[in-house]
# Entry
Amino acid sequence: MEKRINDLIANMTLEEKASLCSGVGAWHTKAIERLDIPAIMMSDGPHGLRKVIEDDENGNQTLESVCFPPAVNLASSWDRDLVKQVGQILGETCQAEGISIILGPAANIKRSPLCGRNFEYFSEDPYLSSEMANAHITGVQSQGVGTSLKHFAANNQEHMRMSINAHIDERTLREIYLNSFERSVKEAKPWTLMCAYNKINDIFCSEHQELLTGILRDEWGYEGLVVSDWGAVNERVDALQAGLELEMPSSDGIGEKKIIEAVKAGILKESTLDHAVRMILNLVFKALENKRTFHAYDKNQDHSKAQKVAEESMVLLRNKDHILPIKESKKIAVIGEFAKKPRYQGGGSSHIKSFKVDTPLDEIKKLATDADVEYAQGYDINTDEIDNTYIEEAKEKAQQSELTIVFAGLPERYESEGYDRTHLKLPPNHNRLIEEVAKVQENIIVVLSNGSPVEIPWINSVKGILEAYLGGQGMGRAVANLIFGKSNPCGKLAETFAVRLNHNPSYLNFPGEGDQVHYAEGIFVGYRYYEKKEINPLFPFGFGLSYTSFDYSQLRADKTEITDEETLQVSFKVKNTGKMQGKEIVQLYVAKPETKIIRPLKELKGFAKVELEPGQEKAVTIELNKRSFAYYNTAIKDWHVESGDYHILIGASSADIRLQTTVSVTSTVKIKPFYHRNTTIGELMEDPKAKPVIEQMAQQITKGMGLSDISKENPAIALNMVRYLPLRGLINFSKGAFTEAILEEILDKLNRN
# Structure
């Protein structure tokens, strides 16, 4: 293959090389018939195939497909195997429909709950996000179909997404926003990686050489193709030099012309162009090698799987008085237009034309065979206006029922690719409906359909809340199975639900001003912020209820002391202490109680989903490595472990820690300090080797500053008063005892030793 590609490049004209570097139309790479180079097709669809039907004159009709729950649901399942299975089905579908690359998954961090595309992103936590993306990519590519991990990087808002300049400090970029991609790039090896629209620190991602070449290829070892988000290229030649090989969609010859002119003018090396062509040909031939001549798939079977995935990912948020699962009820009122016209997917490029959709009302009626089920519309999904006629009808139905199920949430016009939300509120008519129904009925269950967190002002007026998110086309049956106890809820939140929007860490800096946005919250994204600030959220990260209960016990680490070159095996047991089969998502967090580094109180570093029968107990083992304890040290440009004790925390959520142990970790990387004239006395005092030098000078320093009396009475106070004095201050306050020459000699000695 390598020889074939080299021969093709050698026989190409400059014009042919340049032409390969952009697509044809919206979805195909370019073919060169003269050299028998075929085209391959890409398609949208992280949670279902969105194949555009080519012969449609409007170009906007798509193939009927199976709509799986989107990333917001998949991440809430915390189930690597389940996400991998979804990927496998998507890969099978692509093979059957002639698609070589499916555009996804999206591993961007949920910096703000207002981002209109959050439904398509996994989590606020980079570890969970990368694990889910890893599983998704592995599943798709196991079927001989490529993925396009997106949007690299820091595409965390839709507001001005094509030009916004994200100002992010290096440590935050590494620990949060790049960390969400790194593991997937290294382990799952996506065939393509899609660069984002936005700028990072004044440079467009499409032209960011450090991002696309320095970090992605040189540091992470990525060997796949870099493709632009659709329309993300600013200047084609700059992008090519930075490491972006393929521009999508077609630039109608504009980008190609710029490449040709740059090569002829000596601005662009032809060897750089050849490398891009080589990467594109590698992708094309890899796709052809993996193409299956015949492959069928069963939409009805995949629909059943989509329904199962929805069940595994919905989150039970409230279950007062054990109102769920629904037991004997002769009269049930189902209220809310979402019960008949469900909101089950997000808007934008991932919008699927579903071949069928389960309706919640119909599915509830199928399971409530012995009950009288009445329906009231409650609100009009096309408007926010409160209609008292709908409200009164709903109250009447609710009052006559023994139990009321209200379907509420966010209409598609509230959240979509292309624009962000401005608040966390439900539509006024949804909130009013619940408030009014609660006046006549105490047994209320609310089923929420939304792609991102919402405020819940009526939380204490209802007994049950099921967060269905956007459950895909099988969500109706999934909801019915969960509320009637045919299945046990086992999803947990992959994001924090704040009480109010102004509690969110990005609140003062989202979506920015003009075309600039500052990530001023730094590494404190999501639960990292709420815990550090001691702000109680509405629902914490990792939270989710079950119809059964679980006990944790026997936490053990296989070592009590390790170096950062060793791994640590952490084991514990989980037991189902209830009366119903269930699945528990156990979470491992790592904390550094004493640190000189600004750090979160704890960070997620491992998890597992455990299925247990009543009374059954299983052992869980999670492995930790250097990265489990490390922070990104900008001075050494690498991940570094701070030596000392670390707490290993096992919990049912970030706020529900059940077990704890401690391990000592020693760094094998010694960071040599460099001292200079503005190094402070305090910094030297913290260095055991430098401390004696300062102690010898302490008396002269305090005397020079007029602190002799204080020094005699309380040396510690005097020392604290000079702690932040820079070394150059010795010259000013030593009354001639220290000169520039003496200071240089001391610094030289300190740095040599």
Remarks:
- The chain has a mean pLDDT of 94.
- The chain is about 30% helix and 20% strand.
